[in-house]
Design brief:
By secondary structure, the protein is mainly alpha-helical. The protein is built from seven helices and two strands.
Amino acid sequence: MSNGVEWALHGCVTLSQSKEPVPAARLAELHGTPPAYTAKHLQALSRAGIVRSTAGQVGGYTLTKPASEISVLDIVQAIDGTEPAYRCAEIRQRGPLGIPPEQCTRPCAIARTMAAAQQAWSHALASVSVADLAAGIDGDSGGTAMADVRGWLSNTRG
């Protein structure tokens, strides 16, 4: 998983706290990331339909739907794509003890295990929303983190 996923998750949590569009430069400042890096990931989130941009002096980025309707899996796939982490290369058919292709009528135990793990991972990420993340982050901070983010966004707009 790329480092961009972490930023995108934090970025979407931040956007969930704003009633107004947040400029990319402000998101980069808040998260201490280079503006070009932030813009690249915002473009990926935009292509996936998770965020939208608004032009103009008060422009910036907003979520396209409520945070409760955007899953962690949606964001991971927007940044890293939808390909599974494991791709079977049918190694069992190679080498001096290789099995003939016609005997490989179903995925091997390794491929089945990896597919099950991918499914469990995807299900776990799909079951957590951006709103859930915001609540968890807030809980970890004793209930102050999201208020701090909202205050920072509204008081230092620029």
